[in-house]
Structures are given as structure tokens and as C-alpha cells.
């Protein structure tokens, strides 16, 4: 279910970001910037859904440490990455920092879960 939702949100954010933002603000500069923001975040939506799902699977196994480690590490990494990217490409660097770390969080948790599952079988 989260995979389907992730696809819908990804398509909406990447393809219709400006239109979505224009529903909330009328200033062209604002909805153009907002559309850019949604497009960048749209690329990470499937990975965010994967992170949420995998975190729930770890919790169901009573193993809450792996999601906590991944979340704390990559959420903390957002700060220096946003500073680095922001200095080079402006505010969109902050948005890319969120997207990049979300890609890593979802992927790493998924592969960590698969490794744990293989180890248990």
C-alpha cells in the first residue's frame, strides 16, 4: 500500500509540483519555488515509504535499534550536507540534502532487513 502511495505522490510532486503549490499561494515566484521544492522531494518519496515500511518491520521483530541508528545518523548528516550544498546551489541544496539522505535511509534499512532475514533463516 505504501509503495502505491509512494508512486502516486512521486508522480504528483515531480509532474505537478507547481500546480499543487499554486493551490495554496497565488504569487508566481512562490509557486515556482514551491514546485521546484516538491519536484526535488518527489524523487525521495518511494524511499521514504520504504523507510517507513521497513521501520515497521523492524519494530514488529522487536528490533528498534537499526532504524534508530540509520535515522539518527542520516538526519544528523542533513545539516552539514545542507550547508555544503546550500553554499554551492542555494536553498535547493537544503532540499537536495533531505532527498539524498532519504534515499540512503530507505535503501540501507531495506538491505539491513534483508540481511537480518537471511541470517534468521
- The rounded Rg comes to 16 Å
Order of H and E elements: HHHHH
Task: Find the structural class using helix and strand composition.
Answer: mainly alpha
Average pLDDT, to the nearest integer? 95
Measure the end-to-end span: 26 Å
Question: How would you characterize the largest beta sheet?
Answer: none
Q: Indicate the multimeric state.
A: single chain
Point out poorly predicted stretches: none
Percent of residues in β-strands:
under 5%
Per DSSP E runs of 2 or more residues, the count of β-strands stands at 0
Q: What percent of residues adopt helix (DSSP H or I)?
A: over 70%
Count of alpha and pi helical runs = 5
What does this entry look like structurally?
- There is one protein chain.
- With 121 residues, the chain is mainly α.
- The chain has one domain (2-120).
- The protein is built from five helices and no strands.
- It has helices at residues 2-22, 28-42, 45-60, 65-89, 92-120.
- α1 (2-22) runs antiparallel to α2 (28-42) and α3 (45-60) packs parallel to α5.
- It is flat, with a radius of gyration of 16 Å.
Short note summarizing the structure:
The chain is mostly helical. It has five helices and no strands.
Topology of this structure?
Elements: H1 2-22, H2 28-42, H3 45-60, H4 65-89, H5 92-120
Helix pairs in contact: 1-2, 1-3, 2-5, 3-5, 4-5
Q: Keywords for this structure?
A:
121 residues, 0% strand, mainly alpha, flat, 5 helices
Amino acid at each position: 500500500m505504501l509503495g502505491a502511495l509512494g508512486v502516486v505522490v512521486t508522480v504528483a510532486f515531480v509532474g505537478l509540483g507547481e500546480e499543487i503549490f499554486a493551490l495554496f499561494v497565488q504569487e508566481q515566484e512562490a509557486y515556482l519555488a514551491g514546485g521546484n521544492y516538491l519536484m526535488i522531494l518527489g524523487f525521495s518519496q518511494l524511499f521514504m515509504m520504504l523507510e517507513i515500511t521497513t521501520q515497521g518491520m523492524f519494530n514488529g521483530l522487536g528490533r528498534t535499534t537499526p532504524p534508530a541508528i540509520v535515522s539518527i545518523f542520516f538526519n544528523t548528516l542533513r545539516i552539514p550536507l545542507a550547508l555544503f550544498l546550500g553554499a554551492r546551489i542555494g536553498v535547493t541544496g537544503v532540499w537536495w540534502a533531505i532527498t539524498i539522505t532519504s534515499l540512503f535511509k530507505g535503501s540501507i534499512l531495506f538491505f539491513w532487513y534483508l540481511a537480518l532475514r537471511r541470517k534468521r533463516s
